Amino acid sequence: MPANSESHSLLQVRNLSCQRDGRRLFAGLSFTLPASGALQIEGANGAGKTTLLRTLIGSAGDYDGQILWDGRPFPASLPQFRESLLYIGHRAGVRGGLTPLENLAWYGANRSAAMQALEQVDLFGFEDSLCQNLSAGQNRRVALARLFLPDAPSLWILDEPLAALDVAGVAALQGQMAVHLSRGGAMVFTSHQPVALAGLQGIQLADFAVDELAESAGGEHVFG
Ligand SMILES: Nc1ncnc2c1ncn2[C@@H]1O[C@H](COP(=O)(O)OP(=O)(O)OP(=O)(O)O)[C@@H](O)[C@H]1O
């Protein structure tokens, strides 16, 4: 089946536009993300990357255009979409008053799976420390450990996953992203840094900004 066929697409975005505080962040944004597709959203600070991700996960309903999951539009498909979604936001969702093991348990991981995931992100020995006593990079690793759990959901939406990671952490994450894609998973993420990932496609949000002189419509992009 061709990667860009309607039936094979996981996430479809059609003519998406969004504004905040009277300012249009992006307009005419269309893309299709199939299984094994990876898309990096790029743009300057304040360009609207986080707003776009929050729109894609169904947390911001004030947009124009259409978002479809598995061929069915939001909001009707949101329950099925959320079953397939692993979202790690800017603030990473790590509870400081819990340990790394307890944080992963909160997401449903058993002790054995959580320990293996924490080892993968090089947090062995820190599993019982309170996260509020760990560094920024270690807390980011706790959040990212969810990507190393078995049976991770098929769609990853990640806001700045590389932020605060050291060189080894970036390499480990890129490796796990490649594994996920090889298993038929898909991902959309923001990053100000280049990400080494075969087949990775990119969108510059500035290309979808609207100014007073010209409305840019980027056309349909198919990634995978
Ligand atoms: N709820 C909101 N109310 C008003 N303005 C908002 C809201 N959310 C975002 N904005 C504005 O929209 C713009 C885009 O914000 P966003 O966080 O999406 O940018 P970003 O591209 O992710 O930036 P960065 O690279 O700095 O993280 C900013 O100017 C921000 O102030």
From TrEMBL:
Under the heading SMART domains, the entry gives: AAA
From the UniProt record, which GO molecular function terms apply? ATP binding; ATP hydrolysis activity; transmembrane transporter activity
Q: Which Gene3D superfamilies match?
A: P-loop containing nucleotide triphosphate hydrolases
Ordered alphabetically, the record's keywords are:
ATP-binding, Cytochrome c-type biogenesis, Membrane, Nucleotide-binding, Translocase, Transport
The keyword Oxidoreductase belongs to this UniProt entry's keyword annotation: no
Provide a GO biological process annotation: cytochrome complex assembly
The ABC transporter domain is annotated at 11-224
Q: Does the keyword Nucleotide-binding apply?
A: yes
Name of the protein: Heme exporter protein A
Q: Which organism is it from?
A: Microbulbifer donghaiensis
